[in-house]
Structures are given as C-alpha cells and as structure tokens.
Amino acid sequence: MRPARLLLTMTALLLSAAPTLAATPATTPPAAANTLARDAALKRGRQLVTWFYAQNLTPVWAAFLPTARAGFGGDLKVFQAYRANGVVTYGKELRLISEDVRVQDGVSYYLRTATFEKGPDVQWTVVFGLDSVGRVVEFGIIGAGEALPQQVS
C-alpha cells in the first residue's frame, strides 16, 4: 500500500470512529465518583446555607421536595417565619466549627456546625439532606452532638 493511500485510509478510520469515541462516556472509578458526589453536595450545601443565612428563602424553598416542605406545613410563609425567628433568637453565624458531607441510603447530608452571636458557647448544626441532583429531601437545625437524621455515620 502506498504511503498516501495508507494515510487516507487511516484518516477515514479515525474520522469514522470519532463520533463513537465522543459518544462513549469515560468510566469513573467508584472512589472518584464518590469524591465528585461529595464535592457536589458540599458545593450545593454551601449555596443553600448562604441563601438561608441571607434570608433569600425563595431558591431554598424551590429546592425543597415535598418531604422537606412537610416540616413547615408545605407553606413558604411558615418557613420564612421560622428563619426570621432564628435570626432574632440566635443572630448571625459567628464561627464555623466544622463542615462535612455524609452519605447514607442515597442521601448526601451537608452538615454545617457553627456558633452564633447570641449564644457563642452553643454549637448548632444546619443539615441539608440532598438527593442525587441537589434537591432537598430533608432539612433541620439540631444542637451539635444530637443524633443526626437517620443516624448518619
């Protein structure tokens, strides 16, 4: 085979394989996939808590699935009153103690433990339970050291 013909044949093979290669997803090792999921949950949790602390509750509420909304009677106004009461009672976050993501039964729990200006010696943990696409399936604020949702380990 002549070099020019070989080059044309190889080029044709590569071009015909390109759509197949592009359409084949890269496989991600399980450990890397878990790290990516944890990183995504951490990023999403930070976004949600930022909105929550700023009392920008519409996007937080939009992320809540019915299971999370049920804790507030399915009513945004009840959720807004809950947050407003928290601001009056506890004030702003004073010091971040820890931030973590724990996974259990397909739910990624974003956990943020902090102290607040009106009770600097008491630690509280904000919990956002996130599904695989970042929607909130569970929400709560618990005293640090209290049992986490579903005893997350």
UniProtKB/TrEMBL annotation:
Residues spanning the signal sequence: 1-22
Keywords: Signal
Protein name: DUF4019 domain-containing protein
Organism: Deinococcus ruber
